[in-house]
Each structure stands twice: as C-alpha cells, then as structure tokens.
Amino acid sequence: MAYTAKITVTLRESILDVQGKAVEHALLNLGYASVDSARIGKYIEVRINEAEQGEAERICNEICLKLLSNPVMENYSFLLEQVN
Amino acid sequence: MADITVGVVVFPGSNCDHDTMHAVASFEGVKPVMLWHGSHDLEGAKVILLPGGFSYGDYLRAGSIARFSPIMQEVVEAAGKGMPVLGICNGFQVLLESGLLEGALSRNRDKKFLCRNTFIKPVNCSTMFTSLYSEDEVLSIPIAHGEGNYFAPPETISSLMEYDQIVFRYTDALGRVTDEANPNGSLGNIAGIVNRAGNVLGLMPHPERASEKLLGSDDGRRLFESLFRQL
Predict the structure, then answer these.
(1) Domain containing B181 — which CATH number?
(2) Is B145 tagged catalytic?
(3) Residue B112 forms contact with A (CB below 8 Å)
(4) What span, in angstroms and rounded, lies between the C-alpha atoms of A18 and B113?
(5) DSSP labels for A8-76?
(6) Nearest by CB to A70, which of B65, B104, B153?
(7) Is B115 part of the annotated catalytic residue set?
(8) What ipTM score was computed for the predicted complex, to two decimals?
(9) Contacts of B155 (CB under 8 A, 6+ apart)
(10) Which residues on chain B are in Cβ contact (under 8 Å) with A73?
(11) Residue B155 is a catalytic residue
(12) Residues A7-64: tens digit of each pLDDT
C-alpha cells in the first residue's frame, strides 16, 4: 500500500510574490480585465510507502515542515491519494 | 605560532569559494582549507565560512538542501559550541534555512538578479565580525543575488532589535537608511544579522569581493580582519 501526497507550497499572504505580480500584470496586459491577482507556488508529488493513512499524513507533515516549505514565509497543504 | 585554520565550505554549486579562499589567504597567519559538503570533518578549522553561490542549484529554496549536507551537521554543532561562522550571500541563506539565524530571504522586490555595488553601514560594531569598523562609516561592498529580500515576523524583528542583532543595513552613499537605498526590499534595509550569542553572522553583500583596492574597494577586508584578530 502506498499514498501519493500532492503537496502545494505557497508564499504567505504577507510576503510579496514578485513572480505572481509579473504574471498578474501580463494577464491584465492580455486584456483579462477581470483577473484580480495571481500567486505562484510550488507543486510537489511525493510517493509514500506506508500502509496506514495516519502514518503517511504524519510523514507528509514532517517533510513539509522540515524541507519542502519554509514556515517563516510559506504555507503548505496536501492531499493524500491511495495508490495500489 | 601555528596558523589559524579557516574552513571554506564547498557545496555543489558554490561559486564564491575560490574568491573567499583568496581573500582569506591574504591574511598572515591564516590557512584556508576547503571543506567538502559531503564530509563530516571540519579539519581543525577554528572559523567556518559559507561562501556565495547556488548550492544544490538553489533547488526548492536557496539554501534549503545545503542545510542537510553532512558538513552542515558539523557546522551547526560547532556553532552551538561557539565557533565563529560567517555566511555570505548563499551562505546567509544556508544559515537561515539551518536555523542558526532567524528569518528568511525571498525574491528581490523588483524581480531582478542584482549584481552591483551597494553601500552598507555597520550598525553594531561590538560583534567579533565588526570590531574594526565604526558606526559612523559607510562601506562600499557589492551584492550579487536574486533572493536577498530579508523577511522576519514582527516579533523576530523586535527581538533582533532588542538584542542588537542587526549588524548591517543598506544605505545611500551618505549613510542614510532610505527606501531608495534598499536594493531588494529587505525589511528595515537589513543586510546582515548576527545570532544572539554573537558567533554566527550572515550578510548578503560580498566582503570577499571588496577585500583589496584592485577590486575597487577594500571595505570588506576589515570584516575578516576583525574576525581573525579574535582568534
């Protein structure tokens, strides 16, 4: 049994996202006047070979805090999907 | 008297390691050695320098993977026991990621990689890294980074102020801390900070690139000199 963790890491709201700003301006320049904001984050997929979902979740939280995100300036979230 | 050994850590992607070796080697009584990231051996070093560059390609976040390299485990342990550690540019990023210093560095506010001269002011000359500077002077030292925008939550900034841990701020040529003189958007124009114990300094400007007149400025030289004199 294994799980795929689909992890999203985003900059905290209080941090200026310069890449997101550049994309936002580009979209407005393309004429999408209703575009209000764009934020850029990271998407990471990790396969975790664990039988228990609870354990896979624990590991996922741990690696997000330890390496995949920097809690000083980023938030993370994830979805766990069971794979056979 | 035996030479003081100074360890310059080499990560895959470090590119200021040789410049740093060159700057350090110019001091009498100092022997620089390169320390490979995969090693656990500090080779008798009394000071550790983390040079600039793009360790591990800056993958994920600048410094985030380097902090887990074998040599960094030894550096963190030695720093905890009081060994002086100086992180320059990417080295500063590694120090923040490793938790030896507080805060984080995000992308420069104008999105650009900046490689140019800056003026900085030493605002705390009581550290082992700045004892030969005066708080009245303005130093001319270059920067070269894309992610040097210093950020920390308000409570961290307050404690940095309270314990006098802000060591360098970006200024204009006259030493004024203004927004125009802030190259990257760093909170409070912060260019360098020290840990509370005073033995770990990180800064974005490159003192090794301003360590001899031939390079246009030798204002960075006294940072190394201050440090080596303590030993």
Answers:
(1) 3.40.50.880
(2) no
(3) no
(4) 12
(5) EEEE-TTS--HHHHHHHHHHHHTT-TT------EEEEEEEE--S-HHHHHHHHHHHIIIII--TTTEEE
(6) B104
(7) no
(8) 0.87
(9) none
(10) 104, 106, 151
(11) no
(12) 999 999 989 999 999 999 999 999 999 999 999 999 999 999 999 999 999 999 999 9
Separation between Cα atoms, residue B110 and residue B128, nearest integer Å: 33
Q: List the single residue in A18, A68, A72 with the smallest CB-CB distance to B109.
A: A18
Residue segments in chain B with a per-residue pLDDT below the cut of 50: none
Domain of residue A45: give its range.
Answer: 2-83
Residues of B in contact with A72 (CB under 8 A): 96, 103-104, 151-153
pTM for the whole structure: 0.94
Q: What is the CATH number of the domain that holds A8?
A: 3.30.1280.10
Name which of B183, B190, B101 is nearest B145 in CA terms. B183
From the candidates B89, B97, B102, B145, which is the catalytic residue?
A: B89
Of A15, A42, A67, the CB nearest to B106: A15
